[in-house]
């Protein structure tokens, strides 16, 4: 089966996480993605090792986000290399970058210059906080974007310090928005033959991500307030949350509190059976539930609640999840060989096309490994 | 200016959050999105009020995610209505649904049946955990998907209970993946005239979202471990985290620990200046930083660290953010009038096209408000 983006060529000047995450998805869906990297060091993400984890001299993080791409090295401070890159641009459908505002203009690779070479180009750019304004030079880093966006007041309990999401969520969501914008512009390019510039930023993306709570704030002026106990969403009432049980934990979603209490034997809760009272009294209700759920194992609670279709679940770690048949049937893993004695196992594309799971056998590229091929192919 | 998806028609059978979030983005980018809703009650999300917030009888959540859409009512258990819907499908480019596995087949609206009406249709479907396997009937709800995915072991400190992200992150990220898949298939449709089925699930999406940590686990077998203090990312060493100051808090990102300590006057840290030691010793380093940052206000620390280009930031809530010029210049807000005396303020599309911010004046639709117009337009 052909993939939907087969025949589309993307030049990725982007480094680190947000831009390359968009490129990864386009590659998963069939595009040819060529990373344009500076000689020797390449994408700075190659050196960004979390937990000191490396594979073949590049960080594991770099490997996970650059699978299925090619690498072409060019020194963008060298006019000859810029000319070569411009020849590649003439053959591309999409380019992306996340340089600071002004850099691409200096290199002669801003949208207007690129459009002069290739009028139907789709030009994607990522910034931290937009190209203008007091934060235009603030580092576009995930934790900082989370911290200014209000997001750190959503997780953890009410008395906790500001609690960031323990994942680079601003980068990730911004990368998904970039991919959306690029793809929408590609639809237009294929229909009408015209190009477009697509701009995203960590801050705009992480605000969109919060639109539910943010909209409530904009209309009521009320700040999100985490529940004192078992907070799982500052705008939802009890019992919504995760509770410790006699052996592990249980997630309790929305549902009829009467069903929950009556079936599991929690008395004295009838005052709260009406949903209208379950937000303002959430700490009181949750305190009762904390004591209650401690008295039995997760299995016992699930055996009581699941047959009643009460929305609840065990709480798993990676170890338990990956041993579960419900995980195995997804075939989420793929192992990429990188040279004779080296391989890395990572996830596949989360999107299935015509029922087919999209695996890809190509690992992240060695710096400049596509130079020879591209020079020949495009007569560079 | 025209938007990139102008002329594209989407029929949205999806309810709640994930599917409609994809539809919202397509609408933002110029598509005509028509919600197909059951009579009277409509999309179940209309009744899903967080924090008991309502506007004109619909939940604020519904309003935020369905701006800029039309509504057509149809009873899919009625053959006449199904025939009408099929006429609409013949004129559409995309349809999406999030019914449980099997339902669309029973209604005669599965991919094969729809393809018989419209061979180039792009057909999007959302499930909780895939269409097969032991969890195919498990409720596809955000907190439950988070709980089985391992995500609850990323945020909060090491001794904390499993800590969910305080936002419907599985829904949101799954919706962004759906939009990506639909758009990639639209690119193919416009190039080659063929359709595709695009399938996503909360679980596959929330695993992709964790690919960094998950890949580390798959290769090393080591589980994520939150730091005991100021955790902000279980795979990153000190000083990465948020710290209380004399008056508020400060976010401290990656950077040279020597610069941080020397400039701010923290002694006795030279043993940790080498980055190799900063993961295994993170709790010790962070404990020192906790005491240190308490001694001055955030402003004082920022005045010391920012000129040295150390990546750091104040930590804001919605109130402080929305008063900041760096926020105001983004023009993220838009106010939608809904009838004479009712309006709602919400966010705009986070993606800019050709430098233009995409606002949209149309609020979420009243149930069935497009019936008359569509009946006339398509001779239903």
Tell me what you see in this structure.
- The structure is a homodimer of 380-residue chains.
- With 380 residues, chain A is α/β, with parallel strands linked by helices.
- The first copy, chain A, contains 15 helices and 14 strands.
- Chains A and B meet through helix 2, helix 6, helix 7, strand 8 and helix 8 of A and helix 2, helix 6, helix 7, strand 8 and helix 8 of B.
- Strand 14 of chain A pairs antiparallel with strand 8 of chain B, so a sheet runs across the interface.
- Chains A, B: This is CoA transferase.
- Chains A, B: One of its GO terms (molecular function) is CoA-transferase activity.
- Chains A, B: Keywords: Transferase.
Secondary-structure-derived class of chain A = alpha/beta
User: For the largest beta sheet of chain A, what order do the strands appear in spatially?
Assistant: 5-2-1-6-7-8
CATH-defined architecture of the largest domain in chain A: 3-Layer(aba) Sandwich
How many separate structural domains of chain A?
2
What is the overall number of helices of chain A? Answer: 15
Q: Assembly state here?
A: homodimer
Largest interface: A-B, 143 and 143 residues
CATH homolog superfamily of the largest domain in chain A: Crotonobetainyl-coa:carnitine coa-transferase, domain 1
């Amino acid at each position: 089966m052909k993939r939907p983006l087969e025949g589309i060529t993307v030049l990725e000047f982007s480094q680190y996480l947000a831009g390359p995450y968009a490129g990864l998805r386009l590659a998963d869906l069939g595009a040819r993605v060529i990373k344009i990297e500076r000689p020797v060091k390449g994408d700075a993400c190659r050196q960004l090792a979390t937990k000191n984890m490396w594979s073949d001299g590049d960080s594991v993080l770099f490997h996970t986000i650059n699978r299925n791409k090619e690498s072409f090295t060019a020194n963008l401070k060298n006019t000859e290399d810029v000319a070569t890159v411009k020849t590649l641009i003439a053959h591309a459908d999409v380019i992306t970058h996340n340089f600071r505002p002004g850099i691409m203009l200096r290199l002669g690779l801003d949208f207007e210059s690129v459009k002069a070479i290739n009028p139907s180009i789709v030009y994607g750019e990522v910034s931290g906080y937009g190209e203008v304004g007091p934060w235009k030079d603030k580092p576009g880093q995930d934790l900082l974007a989370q911290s200014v966006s209000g997001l750190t007041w959503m997780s953890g309990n009410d008395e906790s310090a500001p609690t960031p999401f323990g994942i680079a969520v601003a980068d990730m969501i911004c990368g998904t928005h970039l991919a959306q914008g690029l793809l929408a512009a590609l639809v237009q390019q294929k229909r009408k033959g015209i190009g477009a510039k697509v701009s995203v930023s960590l801050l705009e993306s992480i605000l969109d991500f919060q639109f539910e709570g943010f909209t409530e704030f904009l209309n009521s002026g009320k700040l999100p307030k985490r529940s004192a106990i078992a907070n799982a969403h500052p705008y939802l009432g009890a019992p919504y949350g995760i509770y410790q049980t006699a052996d592990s934990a249980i997630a309790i979603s929305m549902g009829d509190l009467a069903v929950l209490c009556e079936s599991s034997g929690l008395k004295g809760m009838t005052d709260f059976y009406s949903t209208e009272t379950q937000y303002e009294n959430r700490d009181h209700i949750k305190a009762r539930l904390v004591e209650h759920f401690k008295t039995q194992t997760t299995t016992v609670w699930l055996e009581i609640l699941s047959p009643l279709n009460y929305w609840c679940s065990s709480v798993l770690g990676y170890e338990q999840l990956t041993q579960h048949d419900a995980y195995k049937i997804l075939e989420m893993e793929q192992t990429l060989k990188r040279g004779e004695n080296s391989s890395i196992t990572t996830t596949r594309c989360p999107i299935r096309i015509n029922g087919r799971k999209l695996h890809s056998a190509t690992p992240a590229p060695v710096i400049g490994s596509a130079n020879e091929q591209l020079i020949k192919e495009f007569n560079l």
